[in-house]
Amino acid sequence: VFGLSSVAQVVLGKGDFGQQLSINLGFGIGVTLGIHAAGGISGAHLNAAITLTHCILGNLPWRKFPAYVIGQFLGSFLAAATVFGMYYDALYDYTKGNFTVTGPTATASIFSTYPAPYVSLLGGFFTEFLATAMLLLGILIIHDEKNNGALKGTQALVTGILVLGIGLGMGLNTGYAINPSRDLPPRVFTAIAGWGTDVFTAGHHWWWVPVTAPILGSLAGALIHKLFIDFHNQPDLEIGNEKGQPVVETS
């Protein structure tokens, strides 16, 4: 709701009620509050790509995967419906009732991501892949208690800042979906609400990229963390032994 409404305000306000920074801040704040709301209940699984990665790594039982993804998709779909209802009058005034995906009064991008006109499908895929890899790598670093993780209680805020940073530096090409749960359900909603099937064909059938690229990027981020950080974190006993302190081995 925070993210989509910030996009709606910037687009429908024609730049008089915010700029790109407003969108980045809106999504960062939304992520922070989402983690606070669901962190103690589910670990705040807000991203299907990250949930799938945790299942593959064995950090989350596969039996929880369908429930988490259904929850993510339902929440995102309802968020799109909520923002649509809140800004319906503004949408109608801005478009004169003609909801389009492209053109001078295009509004579909309020709800889902679309590539910039100059971006190739491969370039857009790489952008989403890299941005999600940075997202997952950042999340693992923030929660890495063996390393220099974030202070207890600040993880939600720092993760929100991480999302803000991704938006500030990697949002130009594709709008940084970095999450199938954030992009696909609102796209389905717009198809139902009046934008039609163009939401799936626009941008050379772009819709599948924000679904697949974040999954691969999330796995790549986990691999980078494992190879270059986690493997090099020595256990406390080993560090103690290097300092000349006695180490007691127990069975």
Automatic annotation (TrEMBL):
This is AQP7 protein. CDD domains: MIP. It comes from Podargus strigoides (Tawny frogmouth). NCBIfam families: MIP. It is found in: Membrane. GO terms for molecular function: glycerol channel activity; urea transmembrane transporter activity; water channel activity. It comes from the Eukaryota. It catalyses: glycerol(in) = glycerol(out); H2O(in) = H2O(out). One of its GO terms (cellular component) is basolateral plasma membrane.
